[in-house]
Amino acid sequence: MRFAVRLLPWALLLSLLLVAGVAAGVWLAIERQPLVQQATPVSHDDIARARQLLRGNDPRRALPGITRAVVLTQRDLELLLNQAGQRFGEVRSRVRLQAGLALVQTSLTLPRPWPTSVGGGWLNVQVVLRETEGLPEVQRLRLGRLPVPGWLAEAVLPRLLVALDLQAQGELAQRLVSRVAFRSQHLVLAYAWPDNAPLALTNTLLRPDEQARLRIYADRLATLGTALAARGSAPVSMAQLLPPLFALAAQRSPDAATAARENRAALVALAFNAYGSGLAPLIASAPRAPGRRAPPVTLAGRRDSAQHYLISAALAAEGGGPLADAIGLYKEVTDSRGGSGFSFNDLAADRAGTRLGLLALRNPLALQARLAKGVRETELLPDVSDLPESLREADFKRRYGGVQAPGYRQLMIDIEARLDRLPLLRPAP
């Protein structure tokens, strides 16, 4: 008993030292300013490059077990890191590659309590990776002002992936990738697709609970389609589908974090339905129930407007607002070169959808309550019928000078002003 009493002060002292050590570590790791000052916006060329990479490495067109190689530039990796981290907050990344080594710098915004509690709002991460015969090793790691030995970073990495709910992605990467070689300004990644690559990717990118959530909204859409078909109502306006979907989302949302997840699922399910594919491209095992099909979706009487609006909303709700804008612009420029032509109507729908998607992410409960009450099409998208459309590339450049020219920017300012006049789509203060 006396021995225990004697140990008590030392145990308390050790506990205090541990708490102080953790507090000091947090204080050193969190900083007031980002290390990476600004993320370069996603451009038309970036989207074209991403499409090229996806087409060239499509698992549905590759023989399983055959080792392939893909070259990724510094810019490719920066965009990948920025988009992958959007669900955690604003992410800014900088990658510098040289023979045998990679320097990765990332700045991540932290939730609001951090700035007031520890005097900073950014987690700045610097890591130096060293090339090996297989996957790279961490040579040095720095969290803000806190240096972390490479061996400790390697030991902690598996637990960090679990904490961030990225364990499945990490395990899949280890299964696929056999070697990463660092070269000047690019890397070469050797990989092989497994036999069940599409299913493996689906289960990695979408957890079982996320797949189940998507199916709930897809089933709700199918039920609505059956009811509307019985009335002879096809196609159907977005304004008829959003209220019941978001009413369901509200019923399933006890808090804001859950509401954001439910809103994302509702928008993704509706977006895939608008393209007529259902969830099959997203969930490999998604069943196709005979006789229960969700209705075609329109906005302002047009299916293409609904498609532009909803895919932009879904992308923005996933944390990729700038990506949604860039993809919309990419499609219009591509259309001007041989498709349906450049359409400012479609860009307006893209921008409106992006705003709705960001609200679904940033003000999830308020948006649920608002949409569940019912909504008119004119509250979702202003009248844009007067905007130029079906412009071929030569006509577009002659009239507006390109996507960086004053004429183009002025018309985009006009579109934003129209969106600002819609109370539903006004950015939150």
Descriptive key words:
alpha+beta, single chain, 14% strand, 2 domains, 17 helices, 429 residues, globular, 6-stranded antiparallel sheet, 11 strands, disordered N terminus
Explain the overall architecture.
The N terminus is likely disordered. This protein is of the alpha+beta class and 429 residues long. A hairpin with a 2-residue loop joins β6 and β7. It is globular and about 65 Å long. The strands form three sheets. Strands 1, 3, 4, 5, 6 and 7 form a six-stranded antiparallel sheet that branches. A three-stranded antiparallel sheet has the order 2-9-8. The longest helix is centred in the first third of the chain and has 28 residues. The chain has 17 helices and eleven strands. α9 crosses α14. The chain starts with a helix and ends in a 9-residue tail after the last helix. The protein has two domains: 165 residues, no CATH class; 220 residues, no CATH class.
The assigned structural class equals: alpha+beta
3D shape: globular
SS element count, helices: 17
Let me know the number of strands: 11
End-to-end distance = 61 Å
Rg from Cα: 25 Å
Helix-strand topology string: HEHEHEEHEEEHHEEHHEHHEHHHHHHH
**Uncertain regions spanning at least 5 consecutive residues:** 1-27, 114-119, 323-337
Determine the strand fraction and express it as a percent band.
5-15%
Averaged pLDDT, please?
78
- Biggest pleated-sheet summary: 6 strands, antiparallel
